[in-house]
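Q: Start with the shorter request: fold the first protein.
A: Done. Sequence, then structure:
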Amino acid sequence: MLEHLGRGVTFVAGSVVGGLALAFLIVALRPDLIRGRAGPQAAPAAPAAPAAPPSAAAPPAALAAPAAGPAPAAVPARASYADAVQRAAPAVVNVYTDRVVTERLSPSLGELFGEYLPRYRQRIERTLGSGVIVDDQGHIVTNQHVIANAESIRVQLADGRIAEAHVVGTDPDTDLAVLSVGLKFLPVAPLGRSDQLRVGDVVLAIGNPLGLSQTVTHGIVSAVSRTQLGIAPVEDFIQTDAPINRGNSGGALVDASGALVGINTAMVAKNLGVEGIGFAIPVNLVRGVLGDIVDHGRVIRGWIGIAPEDLSDEQAQQLGLAQGGVVIANLYVGSPAQQAGLLPGDLLLAVDGASPRGAQDVLGRISRHKPGSTVSLRGLRGHASFQVEARVAERPRSQQAQQ
C-alpha cells in the first residue's frame, strides 16, 4: 500500500517539474504571449480627452488634406511657332522662270589668226524664287528681279498645284512685281503692320531656298527703315538675321502670329564673311505698290524733277555752303522744281517740315505725294534761307528706277 503511494507521489512530482520546465522554456522563447494577456489588466487605459469641436483654424482629421509629398517638377512650356507657320505657309508659292540668255563665245584657234567675227549662242536659263498670294483673286507678290526678262513663269502652290502666271505689273523702284494665276480656292496670306515692328521682334522667313520648298527659318528684327543700301532706288528695308538664301527672294517674312510683315528681297554676300544680315520690303510699302499695280497697271509716284545727292560737311565747306546735307545736284528743264524757282546747288533742309535723312529720303517723301498736290521745301542758297511750294507731277516712266 505504501509502495503504491510512493510511486504515485513520485509520478506527480515528476509531472509538475516537467510542466514547470516547459512553461519556463515557453516564457523564455515567447515573452510576448505573457505581455499580450497581462497588458489590459496591468494598467487600465486613461480616459480619452473630449474631442475639440471643428473650427476653421483646426479642421477635423477627416477633412484635413493629406500630407503633401514632394512637389512634381514643373514641365517647361515648349516654344513653338507651328501655328504661325500653319497660318502663313500655304500662301507662299515657288516661282520658276525660264529666260533666254545670249552668250558670246570665245574665238577658236583659227579665228585668232584670221578675220574674227564674234559668235553668240542662246540658251535657256532657269531660275527660282518665291512669292506670296495676297488676295483670293490670284494676285501674287514677288521680287521684280525674280521674274525680270522671263519668257515663261510657273508657280507651284504648297498643295502641289502648278499654274502658269502672267505679269500684272512691275515696280523696279522697289524691286516688286505682281503676278496673277487663274486658280480658285487659294490660300491668302494675312497682311500685318510693318510700322508696328520693333527691333527684337521674332520673325520667320518662308520660301523656296535652293529649290527646297516651304522652308522656314527663324530670327529677329535687327533694324527697321534701313536706307542707302544700294539695293533699290526706293529703300525702306526691314533688316533681319533670319537666314535668307538663294530662292528666298520674293518669299514671306511673317511675325510670330503668322501675319505677313515683309517680302524677303536680299542677303549680304556670305563670301565677304558676313552672316545674319538679310533685308525685306515692309508690307506697308507692298500694300501701296500692289494697289497701284492692280488698279492702274503701274505705280503712280510724285515727282518734281530734282536729282539730289548727299553732301558731307567737308564737301559743303569746299563749295562755300554753310553745312552738309542734301544738295540739288541737278534738275530737269521745265520740271515742277524749276518752275518753283529751285536751282542746282540749293541745300535742302526740310521736306514738308521734316529734316531729310538723305537724298533717298527726299525722293521717297516726294514720291508719296499724289500728282496735283504740293510739297513744301525749305533750304539754303549760299547763306540765305528760302522756302518754296512745288506742284507735284507724276513721275515719267523714263525716270522709273533712275532716281
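Q: Next, the second protein, separately.
A: Sequence, then structure:
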Amino acid sequence: MAEHLLELGHEVVVLDDLSGGFVDNVPSGATFAKGSILNQELTERLFKEYNFTYVYHLAAYAAEGLSHFIKRFNYNNNLLGSVNLINAAVNHGIKRFVFTSSIAVYGAGQTPMTEDTTPLPEDSYGIAKLAVERELKISHEMFGLDYVIFRPHNVYGERQNIGDRYRNVVGIFMNQLLRGEPMTIFGDGTQQRAFTHVSDVAPIIAACVDFPGARNETFNVGADIPYTVNDLARVVAAAMGMQCKVAHLEPRKEVKIAFSDHTKAERVFGVRLKTPLQVGIRAMAEWVNEHGARESSTFEDIEIPKNLPSSWAGIARVRT
C-alpha cells in the first residue's frame, strides 16, 4: 500500500506497532512512526504534525478464529483503535477515510457475497469490522466525513509475516514446510476460500481516492475463484518444492465457504487481470525460500479458554 501511494505521488506516513509486521517492510521514501492506534495522544500528535489529507486504515489484529477467545483484545484493537482514528479524522478535516474491512462481516451461507448481502458476522472479528463500517457511515452523516470501505479476503503475498500461528494460512503452511513440519488443517480441508494475492488489492485501495465513484461506497475486492484448503496445501507444497505432508486437526467453528462477487468494484475501478493462485503462490514461495522460516510467536492472555482448539491451547497463555 505504501509503495503504491508513493508511486501515485503522495507523501506517506506509516504508523505501525510492528506487532504483525517488520520495519524492513516500510518502503524508502515513507516516514515511519512506531506506535499503536490505541495511543490517542500519539495519533493526535501525528495528525497535527503532518496535516493529513487522507487516512488509510489497515491496522487490525485479523485472526478471525482466535477472536472468539480474545474478545476484549479484539474490540480494543479493531474497534476502539479505529474510533481514535475516526475522531481525529473528523476533528482535523480529513478529505477521505479509507478503511479495509473484511468479508468476515457477511457470515455463512451467502455466496457469492455481494455488497448488498445482509451482514451477519459469525465471529468477534467480523462484528468489530462491521461496527467500524457503521461508525464511518454515521460519521459521514453527522460530520461530513467521506469514506471508502473495502472488504478484502484471504490476502497473501511477499513480506507477509509467515511466523504468525493464528492467521494467514498460506504463510502458516510455508513456515511449517520450512521447519520440516506437516501443514496443519482444521477439519477435513474442504473449506473454500478465494485466496488473493496482495498485488490484486493494494493498487486499487491506494488509488481509490482518485475515483469519484468510490466516494462513500463499499466494495468487495479480491480473487474470484475459490479453492479448498486441501487444494491450497498441494499448490503451496509444489511451489515450495517439497512433499505435501498434511496433518488434519479437529474442526473449529468457522464459515465453511466464503468468496465474494466483485462486479461493483470492476464497474468503478475497471476490470483488471488477477493473479492466478499458482502464480501468486509461486512468487510468495520464492520470497519465503530466500528469507527463510520465522520464529512463530505465541498469543498472550487468552481470555476464554473454553472450546479453544487444542492445537492453539499449547501455544497460548490463558489469562488468570
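Q: Describe the second briefly.
A: The chain is about 35% helix and 15% strand. The CA atoms of residues 196 and 223 lie 5 Å apart.
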